[in-house]
Amino acid sequence: MAIAVATSRQALADAYKLLGGASTVWVSLHTSDPGSTGTAEAAGGSPAYARKQATWTSGTGGVLTATQVTIDVAAGTYTHAGFWTAVTGGTFVDKVAITSTTLGSQGQILVTPSYAQS
After folding, report:
1. Domain-located, residue 40
2. pTM surpassing 0.90?
3. How far, rounded to the nearest angstrom, does the alpha carbon of residue 24 sit from its chain's CA centroid?
4. Which site among 57, 58, 110, 117 is 20 to 30 Å from 11 CA-CA?
5. How many domains does the chain have?
6. InterPro entries annotated for this entry (predicted)?
């Protein structure tokens, strides 16, 4: 069932952005579906792969967007982004399938996290 009241959808979306304990999220990239624990996280490269911090903005009607991040990655195929509570370790909060991207050499992938409560 979809939530009919826009302010209720926004309240739920605002609760989502706080799942990590703050209105920031650490964004990761994954080479396959990370499941519920964040497996298959990218690694390696030069500059080395690292999660990037994004900040959620408040939206309306149940929609959130976070700041875009640029993630350095080694050659490979990347299929998912993940959300974490910390730059290393931390708690895996959620995942999203992205357009599968294959890089033949070191490169960068831009990720703009978003969330829509229906």
Report:
1. yes
2. yes
3. 11
4. 110
5. 1
6. Gp80-like (IPR056908)
